[in-house]
Each structure stands twice: as structure tokens, then as C-alpha cells.
């Protein structure tokens, strides 16, 4: 088999880094487009300097690639409207030039409550937030790319990410505080309201397995069930269990504090916009994925939580 090359945008982030490591383990060459500090890259990656908004830089980095993993997002949720679509357009231009399959880690932002509680790939995408509308447009552009015949597309949608190497997520920003052993664990949702989580190595494993297949449609979209927290307490209780101290309290996230912070800071404002996802159960239907792969990769919850807390220096 000839050596395969993947270009990853966002390889210093959580899902980009996890996918890079998994593909490297599977024998891929991985080229990583980096704008700043490359020290967080897996040393086996080939770093290339460039900005994801620079179409020429992305096109140059994509030469020879058979897959472009578009895992880049504005840091800290900042300036979604100004950055997300221009970055995607750079990837689409590179894919048109190379024919490489675009791989997108999808989000649940695309859906409003009318699609809940069990959401399949063909569910209507009627978002209720600005970020959701941007994500819908993002996928629309990718579907148009695949329909044009210029390059295929793979979208793998999952719930809230958590796992080693990821700090820009609800687990690290809402449930615990990185850098110290938690004295309290925060619960953003109400008890009884299920929530979808996705462990980064499981998502990366799924992407890698799908890329191995030669029978994917030109526009392929799959949902991961992930770590489904059926009653909204399983994740926080797993954290307490890993800490080994049942006296660590679980308390409701103080949304009122986040609302006040949102008046002056962008990240809390963006987090507040997504609160509806903690007020309604949303579970992703993985039937199509299971039919394709036979089973969904899934790490036991306690094992996944232990690795995540260790990476955040909480244990």
C-alpha cells in the first residue's frame, strides 16, 4: 500500500491532535498546518507554517494529501462569524485542487429542539443560535463540494468533546478547573436531562476506521452515540469516582455568574448561547455508523474520565 498523507488543520487542538496521533499510529504521514507554537504537535507530524484563513497556504500544504482534516476553530469561541467560514473556504479550495477528501468533526449546534431527543443524520437542521447557523452553512458548502464531484466529504458528528489534550470544552471549562484537584464538581444540566459526550480518542478512532473504507459515498455523514449520559449525572459522578473521594460535592453550575460574565467577556457569552443543549436531552443516533463499521469505538467512561483528569492535571 502506498504511503497515505493527511493534512490536518487544528492539529494542536483536541480533536485535531487526537486524529493526528491515531492516523500516525495507522501508518499515515501527517502534515500539520500551524500558525503559532508547534511544540504541542506530535513529533511525528510534519509542521508547515501557515494560517487556515490563507487559501494559498492551505493549498500548498495540501499537495499530495488524500485527506484534509478540518479540525480548526477560533480559540476561545472568539469571532466565529468572522473566521469559521473563511477557514472552511480555504479547505474547500485546497480540496478542489487536490481531490482530497475533506473530513469534518461535526457538532450538535446544527440542531434545534424540534430535532430532539434522538437525532439521525437526516434530521432537519434548524438551529436556534448564531454558531448553529454557521455550522449549517459550513456543512451546506461541503455538501455542494461533494455534489460537484471535485472532492468527497466525510462528516463525523459527536457530542461535547472531552479527553487528553483538550481544554476548550465544557468538561474543562464547566465541570472542573484545570491545574488542581477539584474541590467541587459542577453540573451544568438538571438531573434527568440526558447529555451527549464524546471521548476524543474514540472520535479519532472512528474517523480513522472510516477513512480505511473505499465504499463511502461522496458525501458521507455519520453520528456517534459517544458517552451518553442518560440522566445528566453519570459524567459528574464518574469524576467523583475517579477522584476517589465521595465527599467531593457535586453542585449546579452557577449560570447566573456566567450570565454576568457574558456582559463583558466573549467566551462566557458564547457558552451562554449554547445553554439550551443542557436544558433538553439530545442523543445522536449511531445506527448508520454501526451498520458501516459493525460497532462504535467506545472507551469505558471511568477510564476516559481518568485519562482526561490526568491530562488536565486534576489528579
What does this structure look like?
It is a single chain. A 7-stranded parallel beta sheet has the order 3-2-1-4-5-7-11, sandwiched between helices. A 3-stranded mixed beta sheet has the order 8-10-12. It has a single domain, classed as Rossmann fold (3-Layer(aba) Sandwich), CATH 3.40.50. It starts with a strand and ends with a helix. It is built from 12 helices and 14 strands. The longest helix has 19 residues, at 80-98. The protein has 315 residues and is an alpha/beta fold. It has helices at 14-25, 55-61, 80-98, 130-148, 170-175, 200-211, 234-243, 255-261, 266-273, 276-279, 287-293, 301-311; strands at residues 5-9, 29-34, 46-49, 67-70, 101-106, 118-119, 153-157, 160-162, 185-187, 195-199, 219-223, 227-229, 250-252, 283-284. Helices cover 39% and strands 18% of the residues. α1 (14-25) packs across α6.
Strand content: 15-25%
Radius of gyration: 19 Å
CATH architecture: 3-Layer(aba) Sandwich
Which strand order does the major sheet show?
3-2-1-4-5-7-11
Alpha carbon gap, first and last residue: 42 Å
Helix content: 25-40%
The low-confidence parts are none
Oligomer: single chain
Outline type: globular
Number of strands: 14
- Kindly report the name of the CATH homologous superfamily: NAD(P)-binding Rossmann-like Domain
Amino acid at each position: 500500500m502506498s504511503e497515505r498523507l493527511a493534512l490536518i488543520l487544528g492539529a494542536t487542538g483536541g480533536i485535531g491532535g487526537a486524529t493526528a496521533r491515531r492516523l500516525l499510529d495507522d501508518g499515515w504521514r501527517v502534515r500539520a498546518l500551524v500558525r503559532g507554537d508547534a511544540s504541542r504537535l506530535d513529533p511525528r507530524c510534519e509542521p508547515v507554517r501557515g494560517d487556515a484563513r490563507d487559501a494559498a497556504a492551505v493549498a500548498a500544504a495540501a499537495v499530495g494529501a488524500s485527506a484534509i482534516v478540518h479540525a480548526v476553530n477560533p480559540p476561545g469561541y472568539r469571532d466565529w462569524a468572522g473566521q469559521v467560514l473563511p477557514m472552511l473556504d480555504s479547505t474547500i479550495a485546497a480540496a478542489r485542487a487536490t481531490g482530497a477528501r475533506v473530513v469534518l468533526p461535526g457538532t450538535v449546534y446544527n440542531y434545534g429542539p424540534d430535532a430532539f431527543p434522538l437525532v439521525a443524520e437526516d434530521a432537519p437542521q434548524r438551529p436556534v443560535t448564531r454558531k448553529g447557523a454557521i455550522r449549517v452553512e459550513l456543512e451546506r458548502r461541503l455538501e455542494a463540494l461533494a455534489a460537484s464531484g471535485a472532492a468527497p466529504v466525510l462528516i463525523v458528528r459527536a457530542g461535547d468533546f472531552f479527553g487528553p489534550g483538550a481544554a476548550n470544552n465544557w468538561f474543562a471549562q464547566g465541570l472542573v478547573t484545570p491545574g488542581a484537584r477539584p474541590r467541587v464538581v459542577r453540573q451544568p444540566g438538571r438531573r434527568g436531562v440526558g447529555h451527549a459526550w464524546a471521548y476524543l480518542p474514540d472520535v479519532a478512532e472512528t474517523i480513522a476506521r472510516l477513512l480505511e473504507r473505499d465504499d463511502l459515498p461522496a458525501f458521507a455523514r455519520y453520528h456517534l452515540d459517544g458517552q451518553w449520559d442518560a440522566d445528566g449525572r453519570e459524567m459528574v459522578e464518574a469524576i467523583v469516582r475517579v477522584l476517589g473521594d465521595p465527599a467531593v460535592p457535586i453542585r449546579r453550575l452557577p449560570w447566573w455568574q456566567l450570565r454576568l460574565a457574558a456582559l463583558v467577556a466573549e467566551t462566557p457569552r458564547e457558552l451562554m448561547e449554547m445553554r439550551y443543549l443542557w436544558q433538553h436531552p439530545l442523543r445522536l443516533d449511531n445506527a448508520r455508523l454501526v451498520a458501516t463499521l459493525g460497532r462504535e469505538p467506545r472507551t469505558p467512561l471511568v477510564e476516559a474520565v481518568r485519562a482526561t483528569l490526568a491530562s488536565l492535571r486534576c489528579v
